[in-house]
Amino acid sequence: MMKLKLLSMGAAALLLAACSSTSDSMTDSTGGAGSAGGLGGMSGIGSSDLGGSGSAMGNVGPGSQEDLEVNVGDRVFFAYDSSSIDDAARQTLDRQTAWLQQFPNVTVTIEGHADQRGTREYNLALGERRAAAAKNYLTASGVSSNRILTLSYGEERPLDDGQNDSAYALNRRAVTVVNVTN
């Protein structure tokens, strides 16, 4: 009887682990396209064509944050000390433009991030330049600027706390977040 209880508890623990939600650091490596220097291999990971909303993760609500992450890509990456939009970032931002045009009532905030190198003040300014670069690209592509807010977190919200090039590359990003309205 004791073995049966232990077996049941183990099965329940495995079931709960399988159903757990994905953390932000996991969604970054699969949630969007973009590249920066050494991230070329990440381009396009986790993104699909605009059509088939919800195809990658079951029924995802059209126009939702999950829809953006799964079907379009919610983030772009930057080279060291740069806010320049590269080709991979352009591809993601082009998909975001089409998605935002498909959902004209959606507003977003673009969050700018930097890696841990540099002063806090410098990284806040760099994060703001990255968010502004993404916003400027979207507005130049036809998205109304009043639908896009920007916010810089600088180095305050790293996806990877590591002190190496791959960790730094994950932290140099701009993330598009769907604003929730009530």
Topology:
Blueprint: H1 2-19, H2 24-30, H3 65-71, E1 75-77, H4 87-102, E2 108-113, H5 120-140, E3 148-154, H6 165-171, E4 173-178
Parallel strand pairs: 2-3
Antiparallel strand pairs: 1-4, 2-4
Describe this structure in words.
- The structure is a single chain.
- The chain has 182 residues and is α+β, with helices and mostly antiparallel strands.
- It has 6 helices and 4 strands.
- The protein has helices at residues 2-19, 24-30, 65-71, 87-102, 120-140, 165-171; strands spanning 75-77, 108-113, 148-154, 173-178.
- Helix 5 (120-140) links the parallel strand 2 and strand 3 (148-154).
% residues in beta strands: 5-15%
Integer-rounded radius of gyration: 18 Å
| Helical coverage, percent range | 40-55%
In total, the number of strands is 4
Q: How would a crystallographer describe the biggest sheet?
A: 4 strands, mixed
Number of helices: 6
Shape descriptor reads: globular
Calculate the mean pLDDT score and round it: 78
In angstroms, what separates the terminal alpha carbons? 51 Å
Poorly predicted ranges (pLDDT <50, ≥5 residues)? 1-57
SSE pattern: HHHEHEHEHE
> Major sheet: order of its strands?
1-4-2-3
Structural class assignment: alpha+beta
Sum up the structure in keywords.
182 residues; disordered N terminus; alpha+beta; globular
